[in-house]
Amino acid sequence: MDLRTLIDTAGPGLLRLVRGTESLPAGTVTIWGIGEPTAGTVEPGDVVLVVGSDDPVAAVAAVRELAASEAGAAVLRLLPEHDAALGDAGEQAGIAVVGAEPGVPWGRVYELLESALAAARRSGQLPVVSVGRDLFALADAIATAVGGPVTIEDASSHVLAFSREGQDVDPVRVATILGRRVPDQWENRMRRQAELDGLLAGDAPGVIEIEGMARRRVIPIRSGGVFLGSIWVAGPTDPSISDEVLEGAAPSAALLLLRRRAEAESEQSARSQAVRALLIRGELDPAVIPGADDGLAVLAVDVDRRKSRGDGALHDHVLVMLANHLRAFRRSPAHTVIDGRGYLVVGGSGDDVHDRLRERLDDGIARIAAATGLTIRAALGISATTPDRVPLARRTADRTLDCAPQDGVVVTFGRIQAAALVEDVSAFVATRETGPSAALRALRRHDRDQGTDLVRTLRATLAAFGDTARAASELHVHANTVRYRLRQAAEITGIRLTDSPHRLALELELLAESDERR
């Protein structure tokens, strides 16, 4: 088959032909990393997935190196603006070049190309099942070839497609089509029988016979040994015909299922990149995040790292469930994971909206935590009235999550704003180039030289709002001792606690000193 046909079969929109339409041998899909030796990895005629090809200069060099190894084609994950340079390199080196969408994982590209080659080999024998991108068309083609109604199901027995004829072959099929999944009581019996007979563990067609329903012929749908689903034919059929058709149809079904996954992953990757651009740079794509005219809210989410192991996939799974929970309340959130932390962006701003959103999020997180056993922490930043303020909303959500107590509820920035302000001011005071004030230096020197406790007494008194009795209790001394020490401090520094600017400055210095020691 030629390269253009292979790409059209594997998934137009996911792969694009940059250079060459050469015929390919009945060859192999190989993964090769830039910088690795080609000897022993790349064989003549191979379709090579070039891992690490994000840099255009390195990618051009890789094309030339693969051409020297007589590879059939190089598949590189670069943006379309690099196609001209790659095409020129391929033309000069004499090798076909294919571009892969950046959002599609290499593992999925490998599965697509392998399945496309397998489907192409089968379709040469059975052109009737070589159909386009539609599982329903495939189901109809199989049904026409075998003379019986067909369903195509995923690995969880959900119906993905069915043929248009023969729905009333038995009550089980009618219920399956109407409910878009096999009824539980029948699914359990059919799956148990299939497991006993080893049908779903292999690759060959088999027969399921259960009292109360018509005979079923079934074949697993696999890719690389992974079970993706199954094809079922109901009613009596000619085994010599139906088995051959099912064996030819399974690779085509696998390709269609993999293509659906790859398209979904590519779409999710594009959405995730759009959310990242909004959170980092304030750039809004209205198609990804609707409702921004009313402002935007940012939720930061952390999943218990002991269970997530820093894996962004678990954060993404929690975000998907949380987004689905909000959609039940007519919200349209978008989400992404940045540096191991999850973020959810949803339209709406203002205190009232934030309060209602927080209640919905509290409920959703509680349900997800109960269902998964995960510890989930979340925080809402300030409202972003315009897209350019979303990065600030994200920073305040991060700050809230870092400072918030772990009490299992969604915390808003308002709850920790005072503590954050004090922390910011303390950090500023601690890093001033002028260093500690003369008064504080004098008190520290006196404590060091005379063995007194004036700095600690001042700190306790200020924390007690000038209440010497409370300060004395904290220090485990008599109130008169506190008063005496305060008079000493005033004599040494000239500061009076009744002087509010000096008192505030001293309190900030002491707070900064306390933070440094912690």
List descriptors.
518 residues, alpha/beta, Udp-n-acetylmuramoylalanyl-d-glutamate--2,6- Diaminopimelate Ligase, Chain: A, domain 1, Beta-Lactamase, Alpha-Beta Plaits, 4 domains, five-stranded mixed β-sheet, 52% helix, elongated
CATH topology of the largest domain: Beta-Lactamase
In DSSP terms (H or I, runs of 4 or more residues), the helix count works out at 18
CATH class of the largest domain: Alpha Beta
Strand content: 15-25%
Structure description:
There is one protein chain. Helices cover 52% and strands 15% of the residues. By secondary structure, the protein is α/β, with parallel strands linked by helices. It has four domains: 3-102, 3-Layer(aba) Sandwich (Udp-n-acetylmuramoylalanyl-d-glutamate--2,6- Diaminopimelate Ligase, Chain: A, domain 1), CATH 3.40.1390.20; 122-259, Beta-Lactamase (2-Layer Sandwich); 282-417, Reverse transcriptase/Diguanylate cyclase domain (Alpha-Beta Plaits), CATH 3.30.70; 432-517, Arc Repressor Mutant, subunit A, CATH 1.10.10. The strands form three sheets. The protein has a five-stranded mixed beta sheet with strand order 1-5-4-3-2, sandwiched between helices. Helix 2 links the parallel strand 3 and strand 4 (73-76). The radius of gyration is 33 Å and the shape is elongated. Mean pLDDT is 81; it is low at 124-132.
Q: How is this fold's topology laid out?
A:
Elements: H1 3-10, E1 15-19, E2 29-33, E3 47-51, H2 56-68, E4 73-76, H3 83-93, E5 96-100, H4 106-125, H5 135-146, E6 150-154, E7 159-162, H6 171-179, H7 184-196, E8 206-208, E9 216-223, E10 226-234, H8 239-281, E11 296-303, H9 305-308, H10 312-327, E12 334-338, E13 341-347, H11 351-372, E14 376-380, H12 390-403, E15 411-412, H13 413-430, H14 438-450, H15 454-463, H16 468-475, H17 479-493, H18 500-517
Parallel strand pairs: 2-3, 3-4, 4-5, 14-15
Antiparallel strand pairs: 1-5, 6-7, 6-10, 8-9, 9-10, 11-13, 11-14, 12-13
